[in-house]
Design a protein that fits this description.
Layout: H1 2-6, H2 21-49, H3 55-79, E1 109-117, H4 122-133, E2 141-149, H5 154-163, E3 166-168, H6 176-186, E4 192-197, E5 201-202, H7 206-210, E6 219-223, E7 235-236, H8 237-245, H9 247-260, E8 264-265, H10 275-282, E9 298-301, H11 302-331, H12 339-353, H13 364-373, E10 381-384, E11 390-391, H14 398-418, H15 429-443, H16 445-461, H17 471-491, H18 498-506, H19 508-519, H20 543-565, H21 572-597, H22 602-605
Helix pairs in contact: 2-3, 2-17, 3-15, 3-16, 4-5, 8-9, 11-12, 14-15, 14-19, 16-19, 16-20, 16-21, 18-21, 20-21
């Protein structure tokens, strides 16, 4: 393991995406234009373009386009405005983080660092412990490091003893990670809590850069961007060809890269780089006080988490008491319910909930965020801190990636269906819209399937979803698509967006599975994302994507042939339009198919060719 990590120790995270008022103005202008042209396009689609002879095809496609347009409007609102990058002055004492006039003692801040672990290699956790012990702060501070081991492993305890940190375990794994954190909170008393995964390695500045946010007494938590420092960098096309073809390959590679720029093969094959999410999407939710917690790398005010727990479970207890009152009233001959019995019921309900600060949920981080944001009385705040303050390991194979993404999707959809935050009292309208953006994105596989199937249907049958592929269609469609592409380039300037868009489209099998699991009432499981590479190829995981590519190419051959030899409804403009659409879909699917077959380069595995 030491040899593996040494290869990446020299890597440093990127600087936060810089803010530019001029670029933001350009983005807002282009986004407004794209939204207007998109509305114009959809109005034309619904009122003038539907093929009346194939409404079974035309209506589902225009409905899918309408759903995607709603997602676009939400995304534009999310990205609308950024803020300059700023790091607040660190708080000197606990008194600096409390409401002015508070009678709390003016003492050093106490911080609990929780490493949540289950079955990860103890030596991996040791690396995080060593880095945590190197945390610095410009003022006196009480830092307490705890390893929360749900695996109850003697070897993990031995590492904690050797490093001089606290070891916490429990008899059961109730609630999984959420229960693990709750158990640790009940046995610690720091003013602030830093949540770290087993593979998280904090930088020395994590507290110096984040605790200043808590000078605002209403700040409940700070989320820092997650950075995966072991992402494969890939090899250049020149190096790859030179290995395969020798000098001739090197010449070819240099010629191609000299024309098109550097081309890297195998770079971040699973699109794990989270820069788009943290530096663009989540950071721009700061203006609406809607940046949600993402788990590892987050810093929490203990008071806020505990108070939210008490409020949540008080509501739960009240519901149980009301139900008990109704049952006793119906079964008792006495006109009044016995107060002592109700007191016992209330006590039992509280004990049953154990005042857990986190709901036992696969997405406990976003659920707790919603809970705190909806506390209008206290007005709790959150912020996405701009600089990277820790490093983590990325999923290194498609199986691990699939486990993680299914957990994200299923957990979020479970909240949407069973505890919809859009109707929760206390949230502001901007917060509701920001959360709606997240949940709407996880519903996208429902209409993305239509977008993947549409070119196949036309190329295979010659039946068009539009009245004709003529100038009005291209005028409306191209005006919108060009404006949209320019707007997205300006809105995410500095971060390449194609890989994220392709991953979003190719995610559809996992997304549909998550939707089906939640709607059927089945429970989303709590699997731990593997930290070691799962050997082998995982083509079975991408069978749906392979099917999309195969069907698209087959239908393209058929449609092209029909233009020459067949007497079908195909037209040249229709075939060309759907061929380009289908090939773009194939390109999006190819990324995840390559990821299923990806293996590390020899220099990363110690193997020789």
């Amino acid at each position: 393991m030491d040899d593996y990590f040494r290869r990446f120790e020299h890597r440093r995270p990127p600087a936060p995406l810089p803010y530019s008022a001029g670029r933001e103005a350009v983005w807002q202008a282009l986004a407004t234009l794209a939204a207007l042209l998109g509305g114009w396009y959809l109005w034309w689609r619904w009122t003038q373009s539907l093929n009346p002879d194939a409404l079974w095809f035309a209506v589902p496609l225009v409905m899918a386009e309408s759903c995607a347009y709603v997602g676009l409007l939400l995304f534009i609102y999310n990205l609308w405005k950024d803020q300059p990058v700023a790091i607040p002055t660190p708080a000197a004492t606990l008194h600096d983080t409390l409401t002015p006039g508070s009678d709390a003692p003016d003492r050093p801040i106490a911080v609990d660092l929780f490493f949540a672990t289950y079955n990860e290699d103890p030596e991996l956790v040791r690396l995080g412990i060593i880095d945590a012990k190197a945390i610095t702060y410009p003022h006196p501070i009480d830092i307490r490091i705890h390893v929360c081991d749900d695996g109850r492993r003697p070897e993990m305890r031995a590492v904690c003893d050797a490093e001089g940190v606290n070891y916490i375990t429990r008899a059961t794994n109730e609630g999984f990670k959420a229960g693990n954190l709750r158990h640790a909170m009940e046995r610690t008393g720091g003013d602030f809590i830093v949540i770290l995964d087993a593979d998280t390695r904090p930088f020395p500045t994590i507290l110096e850069h984040t605790l200043g946010h808590f000078r605002d007494p209403k700040m409940a938590w700070v989320q820092t961007p997650q950075w995966f420092y072991d992402l494969p960098e890939g090899v250049t096309l020149t190096d790859r060809l030179s290995r395969r073809l020798g000098r001739a390959g090197r010449l070819i590679g240099r010629a191609v890269e000299g024309t098109l720029g550097e081309i890297r093969i195998g770079r971040d094959p699973f699109v794990n780089d989270a820069e788009m999410f943290y530096q663009v999407i989540l950071r721009r939710r700061n203006r609406a006080n809607a940046a949600f917690c993402c788990g590892a790398g987050s810093v929490h005010r203990r008071e806020a988490v505990m108070e939210a727990a008490l409020r949540s479970f008080a509501a739960s207890v009240d519901r149980r008491v009301i139900a008990a009152e109704e049952e006793i009233t119906l079964t008792s001959r006495e006109p009044m319910v016995d107060a002592g019995l109700l007191s016992a019921i209330r006590t039992e309900a509280v004990v049953a909930e154990v005042l857990a600060p986190y709901r036992f949920h696969v997405s406990e981080d976003i659920y707790t965020s919603i809970l705190l944001h909806s506390d209008r009385e206290r007005g709790w705040k959150s912020v996405l801190h701009p600089t990277y303050e820790s490093r983590m390991l990325s999923p290194q194979d498609l199986l691990s990636w699939s486990v993680q993404r299914f957990k994200y999707a299923g957990g979020s959809l479970d909240i949407l269906v069973n505890d919809n935050p859009l109707f929760r009292r206390g949230l502001t309208l901007p917060q509701r819209l920001m959360y709606a953006t997240t949940f709407w994105s996880y519903l996208a596989p429902l209409w993305n399937v239509v977008f993947l199937a549409a070119p196949v249907v036309y190329l295979a049958t010659g039946i068009a979803p539009v009245s004709a592929y003529t100038l009005p269609f291209f005028l409306h469609a191209m005006a919108f698509l060009v404006a949209l592409e320019l707007a997205m380039m300006a809105g995410t300037w500095g971060i390449a967006g194609y890989a994220s868009k392709s991953s979003y489209l190719s995610f559809f099998p996992l997304g549909l599975r998550a939707i089906g699991t939640v709607l059927s009432g089945r429970r989303i499981s709590f699997p731990v994302t593997p930290k070691d590479r799962q050997h082998g190829r995982h083509l079975r995981l991408v069978r749906p994507q392979i099917a999309v590519v195969a069907l698209t190419l087959a239908s393209l051959l058929w449609g092209s042939g029909a233009l020459v030899w067949g007497d079908t409804g195909h037209s040249v403009t229709g075939v060309v339009t759907n061929a380009l659409w289908g090939l773009n879909n194939c390109l999006a699917m190819s990324g995840i198919i390559r990821a299923a077959m990806w293996t590390p380069e020899p220099e990363l595995t110690g193997e020789s060719e």
